Amino acid sequence: MTRSDAVPAVVAAARMPGHERLWRVFLAVAIVGGPLGVDVGGALAPSIHGNGRETIAANAAASAAVNDGHLVAFVVASFLLPVGALGLACLAYPRSPWPATIGGLLGFVGWVPYAALTALDDLARAMAGLPGSGSYATLLDRFTVDPTMNAYLLIYVACHLVAYVLLGVALCRARVIPVWAAVAMIASSPVTILAFALPGRVGGDRGGLVTLAIGCTALTLLVVGSLPAARAMLAGETSR
């Protein structure tokens, strides 16, 4: 955002009623803060997509401060992500109602399970702190792939990936964000699929670092694509 863009945005925000300004600040923070929280949490997580034994061992070996940091980032993101998806939909709705509606609903539904998936990380950390922590690996594996957690995972993966394609298209069609931002938002979904398809990351293994790099790239694309949308939200802009 250039200085010439920022001045009208600040003036417009100052003219809003207090309740509207509060809503818009909250939505703007959610739009960017949600994916940023996942990005930070993923970079700090001791294990991603590992089996029970690997995950518990990685949590036991990880720095307590870093492990706490990744959980805090994920918890904050779990509150912001569903709200952020609805905020993006609201921006595009007046000019692109159907893609905005479907994308917003899919984004909301897709991100709601993220809290349950974050709880899995907290469970692994708790198990790692118990005597004989390795004996809990089978329990963690069974819990991770039981019907309830599998349902959460499938809903999360399918819905939020489709959502950002639709929301990127809707926001671009509505001229709320520039084309480059829409491309970044849309591209985050196939890059995320690639990260899901690669082996999990445990500790600092080389293959896991590749998975980490691709996953962080996907989320960074989403953050970059969301920044102009957050600016539009703060400025009180919507499509017309």
Main beta sheet: strand number and arrangement? Answer: 2 strands, antiparallel
Mean pLDDT: 89
**What count of structural domains?**
1
Instruction: Count the beta strands.
Output: 2
The helix content is over 70%
What is the number of helical segments per DSSP (H or I, 4+ residues)? 10
What can you tell me about this protein's structure?
The protein is elongated and about 60 Å long. The protein has 10 helices and 2 strands; from the N terminus they run H-H-E-H-H-H-H-H-H-H-E-H. It has one domain. With 240 residues, the protein is an all-alpha fold. The model has no long low-confidence stretch (mean pLDDT 89). It has a two-stranded antiparallel sheet. Helix 3 (52-61) packs across helix 7 (137-144). The chain is 80% helix and 2% strand.
Explain the layout of strands and helices.
Elements: H1 3-15, H2 18-44, E1 47-48, H3 52-61, H4 64-92, H5 97-111, H6 114-128, H7 137-144, H8 147-173, H9 179-197, E2 201-202, H10 206-235
Antiparallel strand pairs: 1-2
Helix pairs in contact: 1-10, 2-4, 2-10, 3-6, 3-7, 4-5, 4-6, 4-8, 5-8, 8-9, 9-10
Question: Can you give me a brief rundown of this structure?
Answer:
The chain has one domain (3-235). The protein is built from ten helices and two strands.
Using brief descriptors, characterize the structure shown.
single chain; 240 residues; two-stranded antiparallel ribbon; elongated
